[in-house]
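#dry-run=false #mode=assembly
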Amino acid sequence: MVLELAKPRPIWYIMFSTHHTDIGLLYMITSLAFLFMGGALAIAIRMELFYPGVQFIADSMTFNRMFTIHGTTMIFLFILPFASGVGNYFVPIIVRYKDMAYPKLNAIAFWMIPPAGALVWLSFADFGWYAQPPYSLISSPAPAADMWIFGLKILGVSSILGAINFIVTILKCKHPDLPLSKMPLLGWSFLSSSIIMIVAMPTFAAALLMLLMDRMGVTGFFNPAMGGDPIAYAHLFWFTFHPEVYVLVIPAIGMMYEIIPRFSRKPIFSQGSGMFAFIMLALVSFASWGHHMFATGMSFTEKTVFMIGTLAAVPASAMHVFNFLATMWGGRIKFATPMMWATGGIALFFAAGAGGVVNTAMPLDFITHDSYWVVGHFHLFVFGTIAFGSIGFLYYMFPYITGRMYHEKLGQVHFILSFVGAVMVFFTQHILGLFGMPRRVFDYPPIPEWIAMNQLAGVGAFLILAGSVIFLGNLIYSSGKGKDADMDDPFGLGGKYYYPYQAKTPHH
Amino acid sequence: MGGHSSWPEWIYIGVVVALLVWVGAEAWNVERLVEHIPAEAKTIIVTGQQWFWTFEHEDGTKEIGELHVKKGIPYKFEIGSKDVIHSFNIPDYLVLMDAVPGRINVVWFLPVEEGEYPIQCREYCGLLHYNMRGTLYVEDGA
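#status=ok
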């Protein structure tokens, strides 16, 4: 158990520690810092698009750099490290081991993130998080693009080290009395997402090296002027990053599996169905990368295969939704802040999945592809599902980390602002896409529907901003001055069910 | 697991799978029809480059940023790029195909109504990507 503020330690004790909860804390604080930095860029982007014409961002290049760093930050510096933070806290507790399997490797994996984050932010590269050649080869200014590539390289290595650590901890350090089939689904989520990570990430690592060598003019893998093929990069990139979508979403689903049963005061409807769905997602995640490339001139057969592969992921996701609803069915639900975030996240997860079916149905993809529909669609996953699950879980962990309670009413206000905001931003972006607005544009012609939709989205973004300010204030104030939490039952649920922090964990 | 019955979940999964099969089959069928290029389609060579579109008709006429076509005649676009990847898009006619350097991608459409329609680039291509726009003029063919 960590009570940082009740029993203060010098900060370097935490920074140079290899204990899993200390590294978990470092992961979470770092990722939250990057969440606010990336969020600031998002607000700037929405403000710029509030009216057609140039508002306050000086030129399109600055705008292009902003959406690039926004995307890179949110995916690599918020979502992944946040999940690692949660995993660091809970995976050893779940498998009843004293620490992660490789504590030093764990610390190394964390400490690769700050320098990599610095590289990404100082680069302020402009080619989108996708770094698509030949644009990234012939058009991107030199130090920025190369710094970004090195930053991502370091982050990739860090993710692989973290994934190895989770897999070994779960499979090799699990208590012999705990069969894998009884392991809580949060542990299963880290097992399956780590396996996906280890299989998928090396491909991107190779693609980045090839891209770097292409940029130096040594090779021409992706450079058509030297006989290369830019579509090859797209294949390598999406072979990593479609499965990566599941790496991002699966831990958030696992976090909801912790929250939902506890606040429904019922056991999970089906442990087996949850495990099966995680394994299914891990397998089929590798069968669908081509749906990102339908418009690159794929043949009909290729598109059909990837459409089937993509649709195959839907039943597994639907099983999770069913499992959540069946768990809540007939339960004595307490809608405290974590439960609100989890249920809101499930609703948006369902909407995101439904939109995904539209994207992969081949003729419809040509309507939505590279339009604002896609922006709305994947934000319903990364914000609506993953950030909702993560933030809900942060509220859930708050008493565990600090020994104090957050302000419950403010947490609920934060949820309501974020949920309404998310619907206003991302649902309207779907409609904006149907009206034909392309993504990644600095300016747009004054079409009345486009203006109206962008303004709705802008207002939604401000609601999310207001919620985030409340969130930050609540975190800072409550961690120092909040009420002492009842550590046996901080949420007043009756204490009948297992709380992870009641597990006896030997401290080293 | 546990004492509850699992048949509602099986029914639910069955319904989801049936819906997906229907969506997939319908998509497959429509795409098969959409991709069938009519034999009488006239060819227009479309070239994307930072940051404008060039069109070359069968008779050798070239246009920049504007494309004039006749109503009721099917056209086949042969799309290529001179520098980076662009995406040729006429939203009102659901024409969308990437312009990839080193490749020629083909897509066709049939203009059915006279008027002016926007042409835009839908794949991020740099500084003036947002302004890589053009106009499609559909004219009476008679």
